Amino acid sequence: MLAIFKKELRSYFTSPIGYVFLVIYLALGGATFCYTTLFSMSADVTPFFTYMILFSAVILPLLTMKSFSEERKIKTEQLLLTAPVSLTSMVLGKFLAAYVMFAGCIIVNSLYFLILNYYAALKFVILLGNVVAILLVGMLFISVGLFVSSLTENQLAAAVGTMAIIVAFLLVGLISALLPSSYWLRYVFDFFSVLTRFQGFTNGYFDFASLFYYLSVSAIFLYLTVRIYDRRRYG
User: Fold this and answer.
1) pTM score of the predicted model
2) CA 216/CA 123 separation, integer angstroms
3) CB atoms within 10 A of CB 159
4) Radius of gyration of the chain (CA)
5) Which are the contacts of 124, defined by CB distance < 8 A and separation ≥ 6?
6) pLDDT in single tens digits along all 235 residues of the chain
7) Is the dihedral of CA 138, 143, 146, 148 positive or negative?
8) What CA–CA distance (Å, rounded) separates 189 from 212?
9) CA-to-CA distance for 16 and 226, rounded, in angstroms?
């Protein structure tokens, strides 16, 4: 797994995609910080991270679209399938490489608030809750991206398909907000809503149920990716 991780992480910096992702994500983070915090003179960190989740829905698919699609397109997929490494290790190696790129950006963007803390008192628990929450959401988005990338050799199709699934996860929360609180269907939508579960962390409350949700859904998509390659190896 470590070899796959190093190879994949290196590939982000031997092609434009890694630099494009870093520049766009960090630039959006800086602009969003100015808009939600500096210009509005607010010490509330939640709007910043909420916007960053929405941006992640569009930007993260650009990071994951090549993970498996490129392997199929340049005919190196068989090398992966015959390599002396398990399929699970292969998928986890690619997942961790993409996740390190994402987590690095989140950590850098979070430094804005540590600097701001010298001038305005921030609740560290709230900041930590938001950081943990967006890292969990990003984990889910990346696992979705890897799954979709394993289905096609067309990188654009992989990016669009990933965005569609992520937007569906986000829309569930918006639909839930429009339903009456007494309507039973709202509880169903809340259960699957990425945004609804994000809200608990923004209040500084570590929600173990939401943690289990993010980990479980991510594991399901990673498992499906492994199963796809398992069928190709023996199919």
Assistant:
1) 0.91
2) 29
3) 22
4) 19
5) 117
6) 788 898 889 989 888 888 999 999 999 999 999 888 878 777 788 899 999 999 999 999 999 998 888 877 777 767 776 777 788 988 999 999 999 999 999 999 988 887 777 666 677 888 888 999 999 999 999 999 999 999 998 999 999 999 999 998 888 877 766 766 666 677 777 777 788 788 878 877 787 888 999 999 999 999 999 998 888 766 5
7) negative
8) 17
9) 27
- 45/183 Cα distance (integer angstroms): 31
Count of positions (residues) in the chain? 235
User: Comparing C-alpha atoms, which of 209, 132, 133, 166 is closest to residue 63?
Assistant: 166
* 130 contacts: CB under 8 Å, gap ≥ 6: 45, 46, 48, 49, 201, 202
Q: How far apart are CA 124 and CA 26, in angstroms?
A: 22
Q: Which residue has the tokens 């766009």?
A: 24
Domain ranges of the chain: 2-234
Distance of alpha carbon 205 from alpha carbon 125, whole angstroms: 8
